[in-house]
Design a protein that fits this description.
About 75% of the residues lie in helices and about 0% in strands. By secondary structure, the protein is mostly helical.
């Protein structure tokens, strides 16, 4: 099982903190009876099932993007020999890989189906089974194609010409890079974030929720923006290291990173205001926007921290996210976290920008 030992092991190694955080939120915030109630609600409502399917699709896009980007790394070039196996063995290994990648939502789907069986919601059962099969078979077919076209790279011509759509401002360079070379990464993270923004807004009036529901949705959203920050490290290493030989001061660099962060959260901010302005106080919406911006700024500057992507550092981020979640539940204003994160971003940039050297480990 070569794909299990390479792709799957590396994927969960890099994302274990994210999944543990999701589990903490899901089973720390909701009781068992509430999960059953949600399962009954979703399995009896076609619109809610479509929302759940969209979330599962985003997960498949996330794992498929990881698969695609991993194959592009030089150290995984040996996987092109995978096509020398008999086709039956290739398909079997890809099925096992995809089952393990889909395991987080397959497990919850099985729970929803078990509840629906008791409630005799036949249409919900049929729809959930069909979607899960579709999200299993289609990614396997795409991965099979990708392995047989090892040098394949995704590029959409209209996006590749994106440099003509934007003014020649330095803070837009990274956005142009994403649209040109990492369009799937950019749009998948946007859709992932909008799922929590819109989903939380639709859920708000179903129970006695307060502004903490928005804050938790925002926390989950910014956690999913981490890949954009990591990609910024790759972009900086390959395109902007010359800046450190120029007479830029830290305030000017912070201004550039601030504007870059604002361009990256523009879509999220518009949807956040549109879906939440009539539900909670304006101060909470403004606080949420500041937190989203400060978190994106942190992801952009985190690359400069020494050994940023070592397991020890990533575990600190995971436990910090847990602490923030607990404090939010204790009604600590999210604006406080936005201010602290902004100050931390400034400190990382000031202490490390002119001395840190990107390494292959940092830019994977």
């Amino acid at each position: 099982m070569i794909l299990i030992k390479t792709i799957l092991k590396q994927y969960y190694k890099q994302n274990i903190g994210f999944y543990l955080f999701i589990l903490l939120v899901a089973f720390g915030f909701l009781r068992g009876t509430e999960h059953v109630a949600f399962a009954k609600l979703f399995m009896g409502n076609a619109i809610l099932l479509l929302w759940a399917s969209l979330f599962w699709l985003m997960h498949v896009l996330k794992t498929s993007l990881f698969f695609h980007r991993t194959l592009k790394l030089p150290e995984y070039a040996f996987l092109q020999d995978f096509t020398l196996f008999p086709k039956a063995k290739q398909v079997f290994e890809l099925l096992v890989l995809q089952l393990n990648l889909n395991a987080p939502f397959i497990a919850y789907s099985a729970f929803m189906i078990s509840v629906a069986i008791q409630e005799e919601k036949v249409m919900g059962i049929a729809f959930t089974v069909t979607i899960n099969l579709y999200l299993l078979v289609l990614p396997v077919a795409l991965k099979f194609y990708r392995l047989h076209h090892f040098s394949f790279d995704f590029k959409v011509d209209a996006l590749a010409r994106s440099r003509s759509l934007f003014p020649n401002w330095s803070f837009l360079y990274y956005l142009r890079h994403l649209l040109n070379k990492q369009a799937i990464l950019f749009f998948s993270t946007k859709v992932y974030g909008l799922f929590f923004i819109i989903g939380g807004a639709k859920l708000y009036f179903t129970d006695e929720y307060d502004e903490r529901l928005l804050f938790i949705c925002i926390l989950l959203m910014v956690a999913g923006q981490f890949p954009l920050g990591k990609e910024f490290g790759v972009f900086s290493a390959n395109n902007t290291l010359f800046e450190r030989n120029m007479p830029f001061n830290i305030p000017n660099l912070l201004k550039q990173r601030t504007l870059t962060a604002l361009t990256l959260i523009l879509i999220d901010s518009v949807f956040l205001v549109y879906y939440w302005f009539d539900k909670i106080a304006v101060i909470h919406i403004i606080s949420s926007l500041i937190f989203v911006w400060s978190s994106m700024l942190f992801w952009l500057t985190y690359n400069y921290a020494p050994r940023a992507f070592e397991d020890a550092h990533l575990k600190r981020i995971y436990f910090t996210a847990i602490a923030v979640f607990i404090l939010i539940m204790c009604k600590v204003p999210i604006l406080v976290f936005g201010i602290v994160i902004s100050a931390l971003s400034w400190r990382i940039l000031k202490r490390n920008y002119f001395t840190f050297e990107f390494t292959p480990i940092d830019t994977k």
